[in-house]
Design brief:
- This protein has a domain at 6-93.
- 60% of the residues lie in helices and 14% in strands.
- The protein has helices at 6-21, 24-29, 46-56, 72-92, 96-109, 119-128, and strands spanning 33-37, 40-44, 60-63, 66-69.
- It has a four-stranded mixed beta sheet with strand order 1-2-4-3.
- A hairpin with a 2-residue loop joins strand 1 (33-37) and strand 2 (40-44).
- Helix 1 (6-21) packs across helix 4 and helix 4 crosses helix 6 (119-128).
C-alpha cells in the first residue's frame, strides 16, 4: 500500500540514500547488479560484496533507501530485516547513522555487544523475526 507521504520519507532519508547510491555505479561497472524492490534500490556484487565481506563483515547493509548485499541470496535472506532499517531511516532521517553508532558505543560501554545489543538491530531482529 502506497503512503501519500512517501515522497517526504524519501526526502527525509535522502542524505543517507545518496551515500548508498555512490556505491552503485562502481558495483555495476564491476559486474554487479542493482534493481528496485518495493521502493528500495538493492545492489549486489562488485565493490558492494568486497565492502560487506572484508570491511563490515555483514551479509547486507542499509543506507537510506539503498540496500547493499554480498549477493542475491544475502539480499533475499535479509530483506525483511533490512526493510526495518529502511523504516528506521524514514523515522530518523539524517540522524539515523549518528544514533546507530551512538547506540553501538553505549552498548560497548555497558559491556554488551555493539551489534547484537544495538537498539536499532534489536528492533530489526524483533520485527523481522
Amino acid at each position: 500500500m502506497k503512503r501519500w507521504y512517501q515522497p517526504l520519507l524519501y526526502l527525509w532519508a535522502s542524505p543517507n540514500t545518496l551515500l548508498g547510491l555512490t556505491v552503485i555505479p562502481i558495483t555495476l561497472l564491476q559486474g554487479g547488479r542493482a534493481r528496485l524492490v518495493r521502493g528500495v534500490v538493492e545492489a549486489q556484487g562488485g565493490v558492494a560484496t568486497a565492502l560487506l565481506r572484508y570491511v563490515l563483515g555483514a551479509a547486507a547493509v542499509t543506507l537510506g533507501h539503498v540496500v547493499l548485499g554480498r549477493d542475491q541470496q544475502c539480499l533475499d535472506d535479509t530483506r525483511e530485516h533490512e526493510r526495518v532499517h529502511v523504516r528506521q531511516y524514514e523515522r530518523w532521517g539524517p540522524f539515523f547513522l549518528p544514533a546507530y553508532f551512538l547506540s553501538s558505543f553505549l552498548a560497548r560501554l555497558r559491556g554488551q555487544h555493539p551489534y547484537l545489543d544495538n537498539h536499532f538491530e534489536r528492533e530489526a531482529f524483533d520485527e523481522a523475526g
